[in-house]
Amino acid sequence: MRKPLVAGNWKMNKTVDKATLLVADMLPGLEAVKTVDRVICPPFTSLMVASGMLAGTEVGLGAQNMHWEESGAFTGDISPQMVKEFCEFVIIGHSERRAYFNETDETVNKKVKAAFEAGLTPIVCVGESLEQYEAGKTEAIVTAQVKADFEGIDKHDAERLIVAYEPIWAIGTGKTATAEQANDIIKNAVRKNLTTQFGEQTAQMIRILYGGSVKAHNAKELFDMSDIDGGLIGGASLKPEDFVKIVEAAA
Ligand code: PEP
Q1: 60-75, pLDDT tens digit by residue?
Q2: How far apart are CA 20 and CA 30, in angstroms?
Q3: Whole-angstrom distance, CA of residue 188 vs CA of residue 20
Q4: Which residues line ligand 1 (CB under 6 A)?
Q5: Percent helix, strand and coil across the chain, each to the nearest 5
Q6: What confidence tens digit (pLDDT) does each residue in 123-161 have?
Q7: Around 215, how many Cα atoms within 13 Å sit in the side-chain half-sphere?
Q8: Residues acting as catalytic residues
Q9: Which residue's CA is the nearest one to ligand 1's atom 3?
């Protein structure tokens, strides 16, 4: 049985003061839901304060990106070791990074390898654009991403991998894939290819999340599906009550 996981991606929102208030607001509700792994991913600037607030709780902390190199002349970036100072998790290959910052499957693959090497658990995002969706290419696109993003990953490391299937057309738009659609892609494109790459036993251990306009009212329907192991939540993770309800829906 895979333990459900719900992660909140705060994106480029909240100054340190506001992040402190947000963590304080949601922490009691999050702490209560023990049967779900709960993770929050604030901006880099709030990781230090958030890690202090989460110390001694079971709520995990994640970064939203990182470089794959250990150190060097990479102005504006942070290394896996820097992320590891505060976090257990790191989001890699979010569609916004792929769209705005030239993130490719090749860089995603390097980052996934670097994350494992640093002892971090990567939450790796895959998903198709609206154009690809409308052209009926979803399965092919997601299959290609899974193959390229996890190429050369050690089978033991893969057991800890977390994948988030996020149709780009559903992110921040209020549109969601139906629960059946999302489950179908997760099963027949994501998990099927993970099985080819890592074998049945490992693929069955990998948690696959759905992301894309998950809200308090639709979370349960999505999380009840056989192959959806939780969610990556954007907008709704900034609203404490909604985020706690979404976490409760995964229990
Ligand atoms: C995301 O950014 O990963 C996401 C799923 O956003 P939202 O929940 O706002 O669609």
Answers
A1: 999 999 999 999 999 9
A2: 15
A3: 40
A4: 9, 166, 171-172, 211-214, 232-236
A5: 50, 15, 35
A6: 999 999 999 999 999 999 999 999 999 999 999 999 999
A7: 11
A8: 94, 166
A9: 234
